[in-house]
Fold this sequence. Notes:
- InterPro entries: FKBP4/5/8-like (IPR050754), TPR-like_helical_dom_sf (IPR011990), TPR_rpt (IPR019734).
- It is a single chain.
- The chain is an alpha+beta fold.
- The protein has three domains: 4-189, Chitinase A, domain 3 (Roll); 192-264, no CATH class; 293-371, Tetratricopeptide repeat domain (Serine Threonine Protein Phosphatase 5, Tetratricopeptide repeat, Alpha Horseshoe), CATH 1.25.40.10.
- It has helices spanning 80-87, 100-108, 137-143, 197-216, 220-247, 266-286, 290-303, 308-320, 324-337, 342-369, and strands spanning 4-5, 9-10, 14-17, 27-34, 37-48, 53-55, 72-79, 97-99, 126-130, 150-158, 177-186.
- The protein has a seven-stranded antiparallel β-sheet.
- A hairpin with a 3-residue loop joins strand 1 (4-5) and strand 2 (9-10).
Amino acid sequence: MHTEMDGWMDHPLETLHINNGHDADDVASWVSVCPRGLWKVQKKRTGEGSQQTVSGDDALCSSSYFPWLGSLCRIRVQLKADVDEAKSLESEKENEILSITEVIEEVTTAFPRCQDTVLQVPLGDWTTLRLGEGQCDITEACVERMKAGEKCEILISLVGNGPDVSVPHPAEDNLPLFATVELKSFTPGKESWEMCPGEKWEWVKSHKERGGVRFRSGDVWGAADSYSRALKLLITLCGHMRDVTKKGLEQEDTNSGDKTQQLPSANEFKTTKAELHSNLSLCQLKLNQPERAKASAAKATELEPAGAKAWYRLGQACQMVNELEEARQAFKKLLEIQPESPAALKALKNIASREKETNAQLGLRLSKMFS
């Protein structure tokens, strides 16, 4: 279940109730991310829903298993107020049979993420979600612990102390939402440990690209989520990359036509990891999380000492937490990489001005003490 994103969100899973029977999570709660910030989700499993068949080479998973990373999940999310209205129409698609091709085509035309919406899926309609992409963090977290044909109810409420980087919304837009989530069927997926290194690398690249798209559209929370997902997968690749480097097999399988078998060079791996930490730092700065931004930027500069953006973001974060000497050193390092950088020169001038003002205030207080 998606409950924590490395370096920028620390909201552990809160288990409200555990059933001692076969189903261990009838009721649970956690914190999820959406374009408007962090929302607390309380989930209650309500039993069996309707079943649906996916035909083709990828057979429908047994109801005794859960979907995993990459599973194509046929789901429906409805606000509670709309559920009763939808019941009369439910029989029309009750026995719907989709080919695996139709399911994949539906995923490729993904529902666009929207700043004004908490649930990033079309409401009231059956749709297909690829687990692990982070299209709708709330829905994914529900589906991860559901079996085919199951249904759950969720209560979603805004986390009050989280920063909001979006345009302020009216109070009524932040009222708790009550919805249902149904999982009709899903195709096989994989747990992280079951994936080959090449498959993980493809996921890392897709998360990084998705993060960039989200950031440019103003979805800062979503971008941070994507970068964090990529970094989590990179952690599982570190050991493999060390082994590959030691054996001198960096280009192993690079001639293969299968992208899932292609691995990055050690340099590409390190550069990508540094860029992810740097990009995450930028998101954290935008989200007014300077301590986390500082930690992320510092990791980026360690991995890629010539990364100008990371040094600038480190300097910005240090300024925000009033660590002016550390900020000065970061901006000086940026000047070594990019001499006459206007951004670095302006930042150093600002630091000097702040220090002068601080010293003047200190001198005034001391003079009053001894006058």
